[in-house]
């Protein structure tokens, strides 16, 4: 095992990649069956909502949003784009992001939120913005109703349920009602209306995360995969770790060297994973087909999971993955 590590050490490249070349585009053709059903449910429920609250990850404001939302829902109801997980995002260019979204995507109302902090600026502005936009709209068939109904949509794992719970905890001092999980795909269907505010009376409908069925651009796919655990088993955690390494090197963020007990930066994901697995004692027993015995080898999947989790929890700092 140690010899293998030495060989990999010796072959570790020092010239970093200039682009992420990933040829197997098949891994980017994801669309679990329940998502097609979820999209139909969203469309069916649209008649009973006053506003659509689209939640996306603030680290990828320009990539990975599902264009189906725009085609199917766009313009039908007032819309707010909530860029959540702002605590993990580098928002030094927040105003440029807002201008980009306005000019290129026609999104006029953007809020940056941290669902874990109900008192952050974006969370505090959410209810007033919902109220204002619904007040300015004609509400179609719902104009007689006193209560407002909002539907939350977005790709998986961006914090849709967390935002609902956060609003409910803050405004009503009531316990969480929408299930939340670190693993994506927790919400499987459009659920019951959840009350989040008494004055004005606002209910929110949670919905399952729906991915864009086809992502042709490899980098967009990997940015999404890096932010959302939904795609770990579809894309492969080692492929995601490789993209992360490419990204950190490109941004010259070498904090991973110390955190993973490496000697120097590397562009080789195999070298990084073997070294990290050895130094943290992550090993696995493998059956040797020739001898029938077992050998202990570095557990590369566990090392990759740790590396990617560090990024997802902000361990390497705050980032904007979009250029
Ligand atoms: N750091 C941070 N983590 C968040 C934030 N919002 C949600 N999370 C975490 O992100 C994970 C996913 O949150 P959920 O609320 O379940 O996301 P979702 O979009 O409803 O997920 P699906 O049901 O899979 O579509 C959980 O581990 C949350 O604790 C945030 O603003 N900041």
Helix and strand topology:
Layout: H1 2-11, H2 33-45, E1 51-57, H3 67-73, E2 79-84, H4 94-105, E3 110-112, H5 121-136, E4 148-154, H6 160-172, E5 193-197, E6 202-205, H7 218-227, H8 232-235, H9 237-250, H10 255-259, H11 269-279, E7 283-287, E8 294-298, H12 300-312
Parallel strand pairs: 1-2, 1-4, 2-3, 4-6
Antiparallel strand pairs: 5-6, 7-8
The structure holds guanosine-5'-triphosphate.
Account of the protein in words:
The protein is α/β, with parallel strands linked by helices and 323 residues long. 40% of the residues lie in helices and 13% in strands. The chain is built from 12 helices and 8 strands. The strands form 2 sheets. It has a 6-stranded mixed beta sheet, covered by helices on one side. Strands 7-8 form a two-stranded antiparallel ribbon. Helix 9 (237-250) crosses helix 12 (300-312). The longest helix is centred in the middle third of the chain and has 16 residues, at 121-136. The two termini are 39 Å apart. The relative contact order is 0.17. The site of guanosine-5'-triphosphate has 24 residues, from helix 6. Guanosine-5'-triphosphate is lined by residues 84-85, 87-88, 114-116, 154, 156-162, 180-182, 184-187, 208-209.
């Amino acid at each position: 095992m140690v010899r293998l590590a030495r060989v990999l050490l010796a072959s570790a490249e020092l010239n970093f990649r200039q682009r992420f070349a990933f040829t197997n585009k098949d891994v980017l053709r994801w669309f679990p069956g329940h998502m097609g059903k979820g999209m139909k449910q969203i469309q069916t429920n649209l008649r009973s909502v006053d506003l659509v609250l689209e939640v996306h990850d603030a680290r990828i404001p320009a990539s990975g949003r599902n264009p189906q939302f725009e085609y199917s829902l766009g313009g039908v109801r007032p819309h707010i784009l909530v860029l959540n997980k702002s605590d993990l995002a580098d928002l030094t260019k927040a105003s440029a992001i807002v201008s980009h979204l306005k000019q290129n995507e026609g999104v006029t109302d953007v809020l940056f939120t941290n669902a874990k902090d109900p008192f952050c600026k974006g969370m505090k502005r959410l209810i007033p913005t919902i109220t204002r936009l619904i007040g300015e709209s004609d509400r179609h068939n719902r104009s007689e109703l006193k209560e407002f109904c909002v539907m939350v949509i977005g790709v998986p794992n961006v914090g849709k349920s967390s935002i609902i719970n956060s609003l409910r905890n803050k405004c009503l001092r009531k316990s969480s009602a929408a299930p939340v999980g670190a693993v994506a795909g927790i919400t499987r269907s459009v659920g019951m209306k959840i009350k989040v505010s008494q004055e004005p009376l606002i209910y929110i409908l949670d919905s399952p995360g729906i991915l864009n069925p086809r992502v042709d651009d490899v980098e967009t796919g990997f940015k999404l995969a890096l932010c959302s655990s939904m795609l770990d088993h579809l894309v492969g955690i080692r492929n995601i770790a490789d993209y992360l390494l490419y990204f950190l090197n490109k941004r010259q963020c070498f904090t991973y060297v110390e955190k993973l007990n490496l000697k120097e930066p590397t562009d080789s994901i195999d070298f990084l994973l073997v070294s990290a697995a050895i130094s943290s004692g992550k090993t696995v027993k493998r059956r040797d087909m020739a001898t029938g015995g077992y050998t202990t080898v570095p557990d590369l999947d566990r090392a990759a999971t740790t590396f990617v989790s560090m990024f997802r929890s902000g361990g390497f700092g705050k980032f904007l993955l979009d250029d």
